[in-house]
Amino acid sequence: MSKFPLYATLPLRIASFSSVVLRVSTQLLSVAGFFLVSNEGEDATRCFHCGIGLRNWSQDDDPWVEHARFSPNCDFLLNMKGQEFVDLVQLAVKYSSNTCRH
């Protein structure tokens, strides 16, 4: 069951971004399940389904990847992108956190 069923439709998620300009595409955010939560900060977003809250978006962020990174069990994400996509993102996160940086 969706945590925020009001935003279950894409047009309403897109409309939530109507008054802001973000560094990441609001269209991509909306398609990935996110809507703007205006009372939580300038670019605070939430997934309508799982409720994960993400902010501090950068221009290079892929909303689907960030969604899979921080909420790999979201049914909306899994239905749209599949378990293999989520597993690959999780593997990449695990690998990058185990990489030594000089």
TrEMBL record:
One of its GO terms (molecular function) is ubiquitin protein ligase activity. Transmembrane segments: none annotated. It holds the Pfam family BIR. One of its GO terms (cellular component) is nucleus. GO terms for biological process: negative regulation of apoptotic process; positive regulation of protein ubiquitination; regulation of cell cycle. It comes from the Eukaryota. InterPro entries: BIR_rpt (IPR001370), IAP (IPR050784). This is Uncharacterized protein. It comes from Dreissena polymorpha (Zebra mussel). The lineage of its organism: Eukaryota, Metazoa, Spiralia, Lophotrochozoa, Mollusca.
